[in-house]
Specification:
Layout (H helix, E strand, L loop, with lengths): L6 H9 L3 E4 L9 H8 L3 E5 L4 H4 L5 E3 L9 H11 L1 H4 L1 H9 L3 H15 L1
Parallel strand pairs: 1-2, 2-3
Protein name: Exostosin GT47 domain-containing protein
Length: 117
């Protein structure tokens, strides 16, 4: 029987791993645990969605599916090499964490809106 992992245990697990599979949450944000993973230093792996443009601004790995072609050891090595600096370099880490603020996303929305009008 599968049991839900409580938040303290989940956070402890995240901090012990380089990657976290963030399957679809079913609400507005298809991968809500991705934000938690980033905040706690793990690279989230999320499924492609209409929110790819937003998630591409963050250090996440986006997959087309949950199969062996999308989640190979080679892909994990590539993602680790590509995305680790956003977790390890203090300046890049600060840039990532600034994207957790509403002001950052509001500016993105305004810039997108201006570009269409």
């Amino acid at each position: 029987m599968d049991q839900e992992v409580g938040e303290p245990d989940f956070l402890s697990l995240i901090e012990k791993h380089a990657f976290v599979l963030c399957v679809q949450g079913g609400r507005i944000d298809p991968s809500p645990k991705a934000w938690t993973a980033i905040a706690h230093g793990a690279i989230p792996i999320i499924a492609s969605s209409p929110l790819n443009d937003a998630y591409c601004q963050l250090p996440v790995a986006i997959v087309d599916g949950w199969d062996e072609h999308s989640l190979s050891e080679e892909k994990l090595r590539e993602w680790r090499q590509q995305l680790a600096p956003y977790y390890d370099d203090p300046d890049l880490r600060l840039e990532v964490l600034e994207k957790f603020q509403l002001d950052y996303w509001w500016k993105q929305i305004k810039n997108t809106w201006r570009g269409k009008h």
